[in-house]
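Escalated from tier 1: FAD-MDL72527 adduct holo job.
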Amino acid sequence: MAFLQGLDSHIVIVGCGISGIGAAQKLLNQGFHNVRILEATGRCGGRIRTGRIGSKTVEIGANWIHGPCQDNPVFRLACRYDLLDAASTSEENQAVDVGGHPPYVSNWFSSSGRRLDPELTEPAAALFQSLLLECQDFHASGGEPAPSVGAYVKARAPGLAAAEWRDDGGAARDLGLATMSALLKLECSISGTPSMDDVGLGAFGAYKTLPGLDCTFPAGYEGLIGCMMKELPEGIVSYNVPVKCVHWNGSVQRPGPCGRAFPVWVECENGDAVPADHVILTVPLGYLKKHQKTLLSPPLPLKKMHCIERMGFGTNNKIFLEFEQPFWDPDCEAIHFVWEDESALVDVVPDVERFWMKKLACFTVLKPAERYGHLLCGWISGHESEHMESLSEAEVEKSVTQVIRRFTGNPTISPKRIMRSQWYHDPYTCGSYSYLATGCSGFDIDTLAEPLPLKGSRTKPLQVLFAGEATHDSFFSTVHGALLSGWREGDRIISHYSPSSFSVSVSSKL
Ligand code: 6YU
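Tier 2 regenerated the structure:
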């Protein structure tokens, strides 16, 4: 009986990224019929965004299914909708367990305009990888000897490099360390942080990888969103409706539909006020950081505010460059740029305005060439990336072209097209994805995910629930983490009205 009444409850989901869509999917499948999604922009998908450069389809946001195996719900959905190629869905691909992908076949160039010998770069890459593995272990073992991943790597690398290149003199050692600087910058992009000095050492291993060789959507990640949206009722999403404030705890007293009082009223920028029994907030952590003081009334409890401040949310942007001819080898998967003056292990550029492009240390080669031609995706994180966003596309093109000419020693190379993402200046994202910053732990993620009112309150439970990638304790920063978080909060409401299933379904774990 309570469950049947629950089906009439009014549920508002704020944000139509994959977590919001996932939450709606769960609730509608269980028979909840008063579900509405309010989306600030004119499109669904949020940080899943497919675009075009010339005639080529590229991902402006999420790129890969990380860990495409049966335990990954995004992979299962993509298979169900038949969106992947045969190689990605094969049993062999699902079984490979190497943390995403084996080391890329790489071409290394240095700032003095020469190709670097794999005999130098391969040991440097192996040393760097071993240091990252050491960092991950502190999560289980505790007692971390440094506050951050950056501090640990920067302290350990010089000694390891001195031992590795003890017979080759200082020049090889310094170049080995400069190579590690390039990898540290790439790691900033992967973790979505300005510097690895900002990533907590003890928390680094909290992020879990799934088996399976990372794969892409041949026709674009947004195809997944399109398929999921087709299964939702038409008109469920109100587009171009930014939410201004969620008034909860009965702070707005006015009759809603059928004269009933509602514990929550959602105030929109356009002046609309939408009543709700439950609101699922899926706005990115970057947006929360910027607007947490005004997005809720009464404001968030202090413990939630503090954890939103503590948790990390950084910028990782892409710069796509299309060339008539490749300057890389046919089998090359990644191109790295090593600044020879960076043997002190550097992952932050001191004079951002002049030298932001020094942070752009890696380009992935889009494959297969038959589909993409000669297309590179450069990765740039941090404040350097945020500054890049403020420049015109022509200015970005000029700076990047100069760097490529310098590193390749070829003064005539020019990209024929360029396109970059601008996630920091996206007003409804304010960056790219979350990371566990220094001083943070999985408890912060749990606190962020805790619904309002907090436990122990006597007011109506589950008024405001929190989903989105940053609320998943082991898959934060990913699409599958976001989807699972949406399902989790959908399940939380479902279970509220049918308590027997609570312990089974309200779990963010696989
Ligand atoms: C993945 C990948 N990937 C690259 C880049 C980016 C991200 N990710 P959404 O933001 O989607 O939705 C919220 C909605 O809310 C949105 O539509 C807003 O408009 C709306 N909204 C906001 N405010 C509102 C308001 N006031 N009113 C109404 N609506 C409002 N993930 O699996 N594979 O390759 C990448 C990548 C450049 C930017 C990625 C990747 C992250 C995912 O894109 C992201 O998690 C989800 O899409 C988020 O969905 P959502 O629903 O939560 O929010 C050790 C260790 C390290 C840990 N990190 C390892 C790295 C793993 C991540 N790798 C990423 C790499 C790339 C390249």
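The CA atoms of residues 247 and 297 lie 5 Å apart.
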